[in-house]
Specification:
single chain, about 325 residues, alpha/beta, Quinone Oxidoreductase, Chain A, domain 1, Rossmann fold, seven-stranded mixed β-sheet, six-stranded parallel β-sheet, 11 helices, binds NADP nicotinamide-adenine-dinucleotide phosphate
Length: about 325
């Protein structure tokens, strides 16, 4: 065990891209668990596009992280000390203890053994649930329909496309490199993939790949990609508004989108936030776990080591340097 607790503290609200000094890595004493508490050591920290939103004071779905606080983040941890009879050292627990190495918490959800730990932080965690509920509950895919997903090689997008294939849809991904596109088609069964960084005319590319129009758009990018999708909607299309990563570092007003075709195509656009689905997580695990075990759903992870890497690595999400779920491995997995 280390003899101090390194923590990332939010010092300033970033304006535009995050700059050095917006967050600071500090060393604090390792907390002492109180009566009934457990001391947990972070093993994996999830880096998410929404971290950028939490650093801002824009209108959002949770309170922003306060200045001077430890940066918020989802974590998977191991129990180091326990004053709670329900936990013992070595237990792996799902936590939300943020960008730090240790925390004392009253309780946490124990994770069953037998699953590679990164899976709990990706396909069998909030990422997989976002893909599952967003696509199935809001998108309601039908066999033969065309599904478009942006940030398709990312954590959520890559799972969305595979679930849509299991439901008998034609799946067109949008991703930021030829290598990502090749991987999605060859290894993950997508029907087609458009490299939005090299494609000169996204509207024409979507028309080419979706000749009958887009029935479901699982929107992760927003901005110009969403604009191009809007011009290719099929009648009664559903736009599942999961995220708008192209806009999170924007200063001023986020880019607007022409919604005329929502009217013309009698389409539906609906935003959703995965925390609203927490009570239904059992349903998701019951269907997703067998898909993963049977190899029907695959997942990628990009893992960077060390809590000191958390801030420098966050930008990978905005530059597309990650494939699949981006994780920080803060400490070793328990033996
Ligand atoms: N609503 C919810 O509850 C919920 C939950 C989880 C995530 N989300 C949202 O889902 C989206 C994906 O999140 P994730 O965790 O799965 O991250 P991710 O897709 O693993 O990583 C983000 C990806 O976005 C792509 N990207 C970055 N800037 C872009 C731009 N300007 N235009 C198009 N693509 C861009 C990059 O890939 P390329 O190489 O393809 O550019 C990058 O790899 C985000 O918008 C996030 O906010 C929403």
């Amino acid at each position: 065990m280390r003899n101090s607790n390194r923590q990332w503290i939010l010092k300033k609200r970033p304006v535009g891209d995050i700059k050095p000094g917006d967050l600071e890595l500090v060393e604090s004493p390792i907390p002492v668990p109180g009566p009934g508490e457990i001391l947990v050591r972070t093993v994996y920290l999830s880096l998410d596009p929404t971290n950028r939103i939490w650093m801002s004071d824009m209108e959002q779905y949770m309170p922003p992280v306060e200045l001077g606080e430890v940066m918020r983040g989802g974590t998977l941890s191991v129990v180091e000390q326990s004053n709670n009879p329900d936990f013992k050292p070595g237990d792996v627990v799902n936590t939300f203890t943020g960008w730090q190495e240790y925390a004392a918490v009253p309780m946490a959800q124990k994770m069953p053994p037998g699953v590679p730990l990164p899976a709990y932080m990706s396909v069998l965690g909030a990422t997989g649930a976002t893909a599952y509920f967003g696509l199935l509950d809001l998108g309601k895919p039908q066999p033969g329909e065309t599904v478009v997903v942006s940030a398709a090689a990312g954590a959520v997008g890559s799972i969305v496309g595979q679930i849509a294939k299991l439901k008998g849809c034609r799946v067109v991904g949008i991703a930021g490199s030829d290598e990502k596109c090749r991987h999605l088609v060859k290894d993950f069964g997508f029907d087609a993939c458009i490299n939005y960084k090299t494609e000169k005319d996204m509207r024409a590319a979507l028309k080419r790949e979706c000749p009958n129009g887009i029935d479901i758009d699982f929107e992760n990018a927003g901005g110009a990609i969403l604009d191009a999708v809007m011009d290719n909607l099929a009648m009664k299309a559903r736009i599942v508004l999961c995220g708008m990563i192209s806009q999170y570092n924007a200063t001023g007003q986020m880019a607007g989108t022409n919604i005329t075709n929502i009217l013309m195509k009698r389409a539906r656009i609906e935003g959703f936030i995965i925390i609203d689905y927490l009570p239904r997580f059992g349903e998701f695990i019951a269907e997703m776990a067998p898909w993963v075990m049977q190899g029907k759903i695959k997942y990628d992870t990009t893992i960077v080591k060390g809590i000191e890497s958390a801030l420098p690595s966050l930008d990978m999400l905005f530059t597309g340097k990650n494939t699949g779920k981006l994780l920080i491995q803060v400490s070793d997995e328990p033996k």
